[in-house]
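Hey, resending since the last one bounced:
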Amino acid sequence: MENLNKLRWRCRRGTLELDIMCQRYLDECYQQASLQEQHTFLDLLKLEDNELIHYLMGNKTPEDNNLALLVKKIRQR
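The structure tokens again:
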């Protein structure tokens, strides 16, 4: 898995809301998550900000089930 400092940097997004939500998940959940969920988080960080904000603000739901479950978890934090 990626170094936490690199992931922390990748959590810095284009908006404060995205920064906070991604960083909170990283700090509170990532290390205890399953390998599958960690990989899904890496996939989430690859998304463009405009797509990610729609998911994390609840305007859209990802088609991928693993991604949808992770987005739900992040939104509940």
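The chain has a mean pLDDT of 95.

Sorry for the duplicate.
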